[in-house]
Each structure stands twice: as C-alpha cells, then as structure tokens.
C-alpha cells in the first residue's frame, strides 16, 4: 500500500467514464471515496455528494463540510463557443477549490484535461499550426483561447493560495464505461457495429485518410485512473503536467478490421472521402429502438450511448496523433495497456451489461 491508502478521495464527475474509473481504483486501494455528481454513482462504496457545479451556493453547501485529502477533477461542461467554455469551466474549478481549500485538508489536486491542449479547442480543432507529434508536455501553449489553459491557471492560483500540490493529466480519447457520456468512442463504435450487424451493412470507418493511415493512441480509463492516483501520492509527480495514454500505438487500418471481426461484420476503410457517423447515423434512433426491443437491451435511447459528433471529431483529424509518455515514465509511472485489449474488454462488458446485443 502507498500513502494514498486510508485517505479520503473526492472525485468530481464520479459518474463519467474517467471519474467512475478513479472511484473504482481508489476503492480498490482502500480509500474512502466521495463522488460528486448529479446522479448516484454506480461504483459500490462511493459516498454520493450531490452538487450543481454551476451554482456557488450549491457547491459551497455540499463541499465546505468535507475534508478530503486528494481531489480529482474530471467534470466539464460543454458550451457553444470556446469563450463560454472558458468562462464556465474555469469557474467550476475555482468554485470547487474555493469551497474545499480554506479548511486545509487538501494535499493534492489532480485535473484531467486532454490533447486539445495541443490540438486547440473544438471550434479551431487541429487547424492552423499545432506541435509536431509526438506531443510533449513542455510544448508552449497555442495562441488560441482554450478552456484547458484557463482551468490550469485557476488550479495553479488555488495551489499557491491554499498550499496543495497539483498535477494535470492530458488524456487522448478515453476508452471506458459510462452511459449518457458526451464523449465515449468505444461505446459509439460498439453501437455502430451492432447496427451494422443487425442491418446487414458493413462497419464503415467514419474518419479521415490521415487517421486511417497514420499512427494514433488512446487512453484506457483505468490507466488514467492509475496515473491520477499515482500522482496524488508520489512526491516526484508534484506540480507537473503529464500526458496519459496506454503506451502503445496503432493505425486504424489495423484496428478497424479487428473491431469488425469481434462483432462479426464486414468493414470498409477510408475510400477517398470522409464518411462521418453524424451523417450515416441520421436514422439510428429508430433503428436502435427496434434493436433494443428485440434483444431486451437496457437502453433504447441511442443518444445516451453513442456520441457520433465526438467520435467524428477524433477520427476526422487531418493529422496523426501520437503522445509522448517520457515524463511520467521517468518519474516512475509504469502502467501499460494494449489498446486492442482496451476496446475488446469494453465490448465484452457492454454485452454482459446488455447495452449492446
């Protein structure tokens, strides 16, 4: 056991892909876990803390009585413009840390962000000049508004004010388990493949030639959780930003046939033009209701399972995306996961829980 055991861990966004994984990992290490979310956390043994993160009074009322030793921030709110994203999401971080900080119990705060740190915000995604791959943590910030930068600045200011250490964790596309999540590539692909099988159609790659042919990586939610908990209890990780991916690389032209094979469907790769899910799945809602009814699935609303727009954004990038892990490896973080195992394990879990047929 390390110093994290027997501590109290507060996870903001406890029902999301990443937050739920942190809850599971912290519980497995023997920690008391407080889960901040709108809905009751599904991880056994997690104490639910209900709070509206957009409301000062709600956050103060819910969090000021708590005395966590570590805080993991995984929640975000999507707005229409990056200016609104900056205003809303920086305020959420400030609100949480100002509610918890004065009591003096917090020793470390870990903030989850992502590769938009290097690629830019959604409204300027992978446009203009971006760093060459692989991405390194010491790259200068892009000359673009970015809510990740704003969240970091709030974190740094609060750490100086309240005396805790911090870490930032920049994940790639997170592969994990959650329903009703805005960004869930594994479940989105699983739904698309299930629809392909039910309708007798091929599973069509929705992205770009650069993504089909180039190198890429992903982040298993359990690997992310391991790194965030490691950083919270490792002095060498204090006050640093870390990239976090599985540790392997692959090409979608290699991964896509394997995914199609697992579902028992034919597949089509990139063939001269992008064919995004958002367009091809325009009538998926009705198809999925029929599929869910025939197979007795637990969720008939395809919009709670599949985030077509987000998977299109990730797989439509006009460049390959590879992430360097040297900084955390040098500090002693060694967790590794095969990305095919990440996808396969999630598909098996979705089927076992009757999310897909």
From TrEMBL:
Stretches assigned to the PRISE-like Rossmann-fold domain: 76-357
Classification via InterPro entries: NAD(P)-bd_dom_sf, PRISE-like_Rossmann-fold
Identification of the protein by name: Nucleoside-diphosphate-sugar epimerase
Organism of this sequence: Kineococcus rhizosphaerae
């Amino acid at each position: 056991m390390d110093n994290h055991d027997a501590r109290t861990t507060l996870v903001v966004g406890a029902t999301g892909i990443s937050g739920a994984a942190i809850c599971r990992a912290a519980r497995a290490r023997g920690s008391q876990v407080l889960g901040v979310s709108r809905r009751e956390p599904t991880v056994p043994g997690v104490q639910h803390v209900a709070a509206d993160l957009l409301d000062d009074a709600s956050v103060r009322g819910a969090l000021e009585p708590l005395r966590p030793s570590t805080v993991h921030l995984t929640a975000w709110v999507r707005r229409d413009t990056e200016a609104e994203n900056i205003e809303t999401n920086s305020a959420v971080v400030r609100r949480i840390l100002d509610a918890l900080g004065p009591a003096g119990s917090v020793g470390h705060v870990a903030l989850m962000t992502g590769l938009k740190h290097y690629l830019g915000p959604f409204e300027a995604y992978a446009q203009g000049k971006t760093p060459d791959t692989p991405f390194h943590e010491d790259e200068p910030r892009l000359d673009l508004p970015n809510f990740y930068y704003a969240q970091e600045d709030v974190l740094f200011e609060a750490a100086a004010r309240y005396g805790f250490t911090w870490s930032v964790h920049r994940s790639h596309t997170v592969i994990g388990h959650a329903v009703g999540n805005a960004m869930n590539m594994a479940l989105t692909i699983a739904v698309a493949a299930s629809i392909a099988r039910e309708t007798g159609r091929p599973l069509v790659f929705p992205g770009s030639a650069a993504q089909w042919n180039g190198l890429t990586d992903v982040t298993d939610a359990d690997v992310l959780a391991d790194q965030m908990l490691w950083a919270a209890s490792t002095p060498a990780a204090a006050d640093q930003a870390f990239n976090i991916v599985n540790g392997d690389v692959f090409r979608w032209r290699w991964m896509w046939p394997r995914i199609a094979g697992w579902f028992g469907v034919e597949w089509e790769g990139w063939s001269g033009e992008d064919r995004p899910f958002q367009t091809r799945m325009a009538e998926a809602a009705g198809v999925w209701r029929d599929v869910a009814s025939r197979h007795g699935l637990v969720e008939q609303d395809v919009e709670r399972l599949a985030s077509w727009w987000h998977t299109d954004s990730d797989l439509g990038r006009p460049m390959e995306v590879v992430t360097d892990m040297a900084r955390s490896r040098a500090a002693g973080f060694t967790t590794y996961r095969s990305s095919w195992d990440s996808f396969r394990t999630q598909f098996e879990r979705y089927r076992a829980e009757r999310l897909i047929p």
